[in-house]
Automatic annotation (TrEMBL), chains A, B:
Bilayer-spanning residue ranges: none
Pfam family, one: Rrf2
Gene Ontology CC: one annotated term: cytosol
NCBIfam families: rrf2_super (TIGR00738)
Family annotation (InterPro entries): TR_Rrf2-type_CS, Tscrpt_reg_Rrf2, WH-like_DNA-bd_sf, WH_DNA-bd_sf
GO MF annotations, alphabetized: DNA-binding transcription factor activity
PANTHER family with a match to the protein in the record: TRANSCRIPTIONAL REGULATOR-RELATED, WINGED HELIX-TURN-HELIX TRANSCRIPTIONAL REGULATOR, RRF2 FAMILY
Organism this protein belongs to: Phytomonospora endophytica
Name the record gives this protein: Rrf2 family protein
Gene3D superfamilies registered for this protein in UniProt: Winged helix-like DNA-binding domain superfamily/Winged helix DNA-binding domain
Amino acid sequence: MKMNEGVEWALHSCVNLTWVDGDRAVTAARLAAFYELPAAYLNKQLQALARAGILTSTSGPKGGFRLARSPERITLMDIVTAIEGPEDAFRCTEILRKGPGGDPAVDYRAQCLVSQAMGRAELAWRRELAGQTIADIKASVEAAYPEAPERTRKRLTE
Amino acid sequence: MKMNEGVEWALHSCVNLTWVDGDRAVTAARLAAFYELPAAYLNKQLQALARAGILTSTSGPKGGFRLARSPERITLMDIVTAIEGPEDAFRCTEILRKGPGGDPAVDYRAQCLVSQAMGRAELAWRRELAGQTIADIKASVEAAYPEAPERTRKRLTE
DNA sequence: GACGGGGTACTCGGATAGAGCTTGTCCGAGTTAGCGTGG
DNA sequence: CCACGCTAACTCGGACAAGCTCTATCCGAGTACCCCGTC
């Protein structure tokens, strides 16, 4: 059970995008060069963010990606879901159906108590992710590293 | 990011084992037949539980697996960790090290604010798992399906 | 000098290979129970 | 009848393949800009 590495890249890229003017688009190549990441693969992740409505993409010269909405309205949950998909990590395969007393008509994803317990844990995880926004991270980074915004903006636009 | 399917099997198998006498060992084949699972593969998962000290294993005739300690002392976290390993799903690869101002001496798994945010979410997940024991599930199953204990015990011992 | 059209360079986007993990299977080492034999 | 040793069957345990997801890459479709020619 390991998370897609693109989640980390996407999170950092979104935070970095908060520091560039909203009317400037940043190319995938430039975002990738920032952390020496494979450009084509990062592009793939950014495409997923665009499909999810988190980023907007523009083709051609002066094209690239930009945030589709304000950082306060982008949660970590949004980004994780965009990259990883909406399915839970724990998938109830309803093995109770094959056991003694198993009823084919019952939806064991809702009835099975093991599934419910795992679901509660996953819900706690999602709740924590949904409670944090890109703006929160941006603010804490600015507090800890005051030079980061300007340095990042320069590196991404020049 | 999908969890090993063996986690589901292990959870159900542990709950089922709570209903057989502590001095009776149940073979992997019998536990697998209960839900029509591939026996050899379930055996693999049970081995992991044994290595983690959750089950004890016995070889030879009359051998098999049994719970190593009381269900109250076995949390869902124990089982998930035994199967999935101790690593977090989100792995900070410390990409900040490659970025501008990156310092090779800094441990970014502790410093990176993105990593911290993801860590908090994962901690909430683990906390929820650690707060639930096999005994809790056993109790709620018994409340919902009073016939389950006897039926399971019979099926696993005869 | 101003305007329009074509070419060109640049960007995203999806289709296409390769690596690593999950899933599934198999046979061997070790152990216990049962049986046969001898006292 | 009882004790002992041997055999044989049974179980776990780890080593060995197949499928699938994640990782990585490449080239084509689309677009905005820029240059050139014309009015």
